[in-house]
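Researcher: Here's the sequence for the chain we discussed earlier.
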Amino acid sequence: MRVRVDVLERLFDGTFAINEVTSTSKYDPDKHLLDAAIQLWVVRGSTRRKPAPALS
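Model: Thanks. This is the structure I predict for it:
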């Protein structure tokens, strides 16, 4: 299985934020929140810096 982060943003303080991007105009928490959580889980397992999740 391959997991990729939609947008990995470097913040001014040197930390990172994960931004979940959707192709729909409607937010579906069952789908989009789970997708963002999986991305965050994978990134946290592969880095020392812990990104802050964000939905956009």
